[in-house]
Amino acid sequence: MLLTEVRGLPVTGPDGRTRLGTVASLSVDAAAGTVRRVRVRRGPFRKETEVSWDAVRSVGPDGVRLRAGAVPGPPGRPRDPVGSLVLTEAGQERGRVLDAAFSPGTGRVLAVFTTRGELSPARLLGLGDHALVVRSG
User: What is the predicted pLDDT for the residue at 116?
Assistant: First the structure.
């Protein structure tokens, strides 16, 4: 599944019927190569909260379903790589992130798609406020 495919999907409680909001974005830990949090947009004033990836029961084209006892908390710093500049550890620009594929079951990042091609998650070093840092090569 792609990060951009999840944006806007409904987020529901364990029963699958109680709607808690919609997915605003997924936060990625680039160094670990995994999705860490789901940012949820709630209500008419676009208030946002976050839940840990561990609180996610399932992800699919119909939405994100949370586990029983999932507790949304205040949003942290967003770490969505889509749109970020790609830089090598030496500071060389390597395009921009278009999207990333991840496993809906584990949250593991499978590939990052950039304006200059596909990157293996093994090359990811970190994600800052404006850039995804990758190993050269």
Answer: 97
